[in-house]
Design brief:
The chain is an all-alpha fold and 157 residues long. It has helices at 2-17, 32-36, 40-78, 85-94, 102-119, 121-127, 133-153. 74% of the residues lie in helices and 0% in strands.
Length: 157
């Protein structure tokens, strides 16, 4: 009922004033700046800030993707697996020179140290069960001492 009264009286009031009140914009005709409650300059600055923040986020995301790709390519080289073109492309997008995060670099360094230990002769001997390295070293040094003493006794030399 209130709607009917308002529409009847509102229409007649507009006719009486003759449109002197100026044109009022409806909700759909407002500019984006007015819709946000800002001036045009404030709105443009706000939009610029949004674009800059998005660019920074995208750059950080690309950097993280390149770091991960570097990490994967390192392990592919280590275990002699085929290379992946997408990893190479991600590294190239960032500029090709990607440093690993400290934690990942530390993990790789530890893996390399463990690998070197396993590849050494002593590392291979430690893998054999029922082998006491200390007793083996003692026997080797005792044998070496015996050889030195017998070499001293030898009349030919």
């Amino acid at each position: 009922m209130a709607f009917m009264v308002k529409s009847m009286v509102g229409g007649q009031l507009k006719n009486l004033t003759g449109g002197l009140g100026g044109e009022e914009k409806s909700e759909g005709e407002k500019s984006p700046a007015e819709a946000q409650g800002m001036t045009r300059e404030e709105y443009e600055e706000y939009q610029r800030q949004l674009v800059e923040e998005k660019m920074e986020r995208d750059a950080q995301f690309a950097q993280r993707k390149a770091e991960r790709a570097t990490f994967r390519s390192h392990f592919r080289e280590k275990y002699r697996l085929p290379k992946n073109e997408t990893d190479d492309n991600q590294i190239q997008l960032v500029g090709g020179d990607v440093e690993l995060p400290k934690e990942l670099a530390k993990m790789i360094e530890q893996d390399n140290e463990e690998e070197e230990e396993k590849n050494s002769v002593i590392g291979q001997l430690s893998n054999i069960q029922n082998l006491d390295l200390d007793s083996l070293k003692d026997k080797a040094s005792a044998t070496l001492e015996d050889l030195k003493q017998s070499a001293e006794k030898c009349a030919v030399m």
